[in-house]
């Protein structure tokens, strides 16, 4: 099964333009506890390089584009985000890297948990070790 899971949002358009509504436990598959956004990226910068123990997120590219690398310790997939009508759903224990930001790129991220630095796995070998540990899903 692909690591890349997109949620297509319903666009409520009329003669004035478009509107998309995001609701926790409705079109977003968790309670939304946090929203953050990433913008003004420096050229050629790469971000991420971590996984989470317990965090689900939906990433929406509100403007411009960027590339996400998703890795479950076995397979690695790349996907370009460039649509405000789709969200990339990233579940627990997925390694993510972000690159190729266009200068005007804005990413909005909806998160299932509050910010917790202890939830981050920042070492790739440690991530793979934890993934292979049968005591963890
Ligand atoms: C993820 C990708 C898509 C906070 O204080 N609160 C927050 O909610 C977040 C997300 C970050 N921070 C602080 C921690 C760092 O000092 O902001 C700084 C930059 O965060 P970080 O280096 O983690 O940013 P990215 O772009 O590498 O990763 C972020 C999220 O942390 C991560 O969960 O999946 O965006």
Question: What does this protein look like?
Answer:
The protein has 137 residues and is mainly beta. The chain has one domain (5-13, 20-132): Sandwich (Jelly Rolls). Helices cover 7% and strands 38% of the residues. It has 1 helix and 10 strands; from the N terminus they run E-E-E-E-E-E-E-E-E-E-H. The chain has one helix at 124-132, and strands at 5-8, 34-38, 47-52, 57-63, 66-71, 76-81, 86-90, 95-99, 106-111, 120-121. It has a 5-stranded antiparallel beta sheet with strand order 1-7-4-9-2, with no helix packed on it. A 5-stranded antiparallel beta sheet has the order 6-5-8-3-10. Strand 5 and strand 6 (76-81) form a beta hairpin. The longest helix is centred in the C-terminal third of the chain and has 9 residues, at 124-132. The relative contact order is 0.27. Bound molecules: dTDP-4-keto-6-deoxyglucose.
Domain count, please report it: 1
Distance N terminus to C terminus?
16 Å
Helix coverage percent: under 10%
CATH names the topology as Jelly Rolls
Classified in CATH, the superfamily is Jelly Rolls
Overall pLDDT confidence: 95
In terms of DSSP E residues, the strand content is 35-45%
What kind of sheet is the major sheet? 5 strands, antiparallel
| Bound ligands, each once | dTDP-4-keto-6-deoxyglucose
- The CATH class label is Mainly Beta
Q: What order do the SSEs take from the amino end to the carboxyl end, as H and E? A: EEEEEEEEEEH
The shape, in one word, is: globular
SSE layout and pairing:
Elements lengths: L4 E4 L25 E5 L8 E6 L4 E7 L2 E6 L4 E6 L4 E5 L4 E5 L6 E6 L8 E2 L2 H9 L5
Antiparallel strand pairs: 1-7, 2-9, 3-8, 3-10, 4-7, 4-9, 5-6, 5-8
